Amino acid sequence: MKKIIFILIMLLPLVLSACTIADSNIQDKIASPENNTTPIQGKWVIDEVVISAEDEVTTDDSISNDVVEEESYLGREILFNKNAIVVADDYAENPTFKFKNVNTNDYLLYKYKVNPSSLNIQSENIQVITSLKDNQLFYEFVRYNEDNLLIYIDNAFYKLTKIADEVSSEEVNRYISIENNMMRTFDTIEVEDINSGVLLGIKTPTYDEENEISDWEYKTIWIKSENRNITKYELDKLLVPRKNGFWLVGVDRVKTDISINDKIFALPQFRRIDLDEAKLQLDNVKEQLELALDSFSKPLDESQESIALVASKPTILKDILFIGNDYISIEKTEVDNKNKKTLEVYALDNIEEERPIKLSDIVEDGEFLFNEGSQNIQSLGQNVIRNQFNVGLIRKNGYWILKGRINYQQKEEELYKDFNIKAIPPKAMVSYDELSIPWDIINTQFPGAVDVFSSPNGEFIIIVTSNELQIYPTENGELLSIEPISNIQLPNNASIIMSEWATGRYPNIWENEMINQGASIID
Fold first, then answer.
1. Angle of the 2-18 helix axis to the 275-297 helix axis, nearest 10
2. Which of 19, 247, 364, 471 could crosslink 278 through cysteines, CB 3.0-4.6 Å?
3. What is the DSSP string of 178-227?
4. CA separation for the pair 387, 174 (Å, rounded)
5. How much is the pTM?
6. Enclosing H/E stretch for 9
7. Rg (CA), the chain
8. What is the pairing mode between strands 96-103 and 90-93?
């Protein structure tokens, strides 16, 4: 029986690992920046509109504008060399690439809701090549033979045909120069459209009455401003934009008769397994574990039962404090250890391991900065624990900041003290974190403000109060109105754990993903 229990307990991390990106048919590779070649090279032409991913069959009444826009790409050239990519009127200098081999049906059906047959793809596997501009998704290409690619632009797939194996840097630079000159000319005639959006991760504390312990609920709010017309959506799960697409992130609470364990999950959205399936697998393992533990505990006497409970997995709660493109910061509570609370940072790519990252892996001179910040609070009590793995991210005065924690005991009570770390979170953790209007001015004009977020293009700010998000238009670092143009109610004690911004063509892509995930519009 002990062997059965051991096997069931070992099943749990295996199931959780199955719910992550470690899928046997998906292999991510990153093209080295020192490499003089790229996964795609040469000159290509857009010669066919293959299909719209959202609507495979278009009625005559809905053709006009979409068809005109789709046909405007036909005949346009796409250029690849080691220094740049040019895609019609768009370009990326010094791009980076990620490429992966995926199951054709899984990837196209579950990411784009399109059957491979609709795209005339017969092969079982395809290669997906993702180009990155300034560490953000630029365009994604599907290679299904040597001379043809597919590109996804504005909700439609286009076929590319190679017309030259190589393209010179001079030709690429000439295209870029033309586009820059056209943009400058355009700016003198007409004001460019303003378009930006933000995904905010919202956390609300709740209470698990059955087990008398803390719990938390998470959701995503999408705010888009297009020429200062506001669109708002809400999703009852955390949707995280990453370099290789959107992921769902959250916490599964696994309960047995003898323990509770919170497990962080991160699910890429191009895989067949979804959130409900992952939870079903976890529930099945939990049920088997509970049955085995129940049958095992019956013949034990009191002393043996005590030993079994002590040897069981402790109750551990995890509270998400921050999520970015590649990292997540949590507070871990060890309930059975006098509610000891520590901070941990994990990499999302191997979240199933829940292996914390130390400060010196995040910032230069991390060990020195941790010791410097904690030196004034190390004589507070007995058993002071100094550990540079004990770090996290929080919001303070309109910015994400790094903080450290010292755990100690005083009169047999488990306590802790937090301190600021004198380092700016690297861009790998926080991609955009600037204010168009300084916090001091916001705090003076809006005494009820507890936080503020600014769009990268200076179009609007979001002022956070204790129960509301207030959206104000801005220009050149000034408020255009003292009254909000829109607002969103927040639950009591809610906090923001994610702020990911999109500009240019990305707001429409992100909004479509929110809608595809089942988001509801906020009135």
1. 170
2. 19
3. HHHHHHHHHHHHSPPPPEEEEEEEEEEEEEETTTTEEEEEEEEEEEEEET
4. 54
5. 0.66
6. helix 2-18
7. 26
8. unpaired
- Here the tokens at position 309 are 């409970």
One digit per residue, the tens of pLDDT, for the chain of length 523 reads: 544 444 444 444 444 444 433 333 333 433 333 444 678 888 899 888 887 544 443 333 333 334 445 566 788 888 888 888 888 778 888 888 888 888 888 788 767 767 788 888 888 888 988 888 877 778 889 988 888 888 888 668 888 999 988 888 888 888 777 656 544 433 333 435 578 999 999 999 999 998 899 999 999 999 999 988 999 999 999 999 988 789 999 999 998 888 999 999 999 886 444 445 555 555 555 555 555 545 444 454 444 444 444 445 789 999 999 999 999 999 999 999 999 999 999 999 889 888 999 999 999 999 999 988 888 775 665 677 789 999 999 999 899 999 999 998 888 888 899 999 989 898 889 988 999 999 989 999 999 999 999 999 999 999 999 999 999 999 988 999 999 999 999 998 999 999 999 988 889 989 999 999 999 999 8
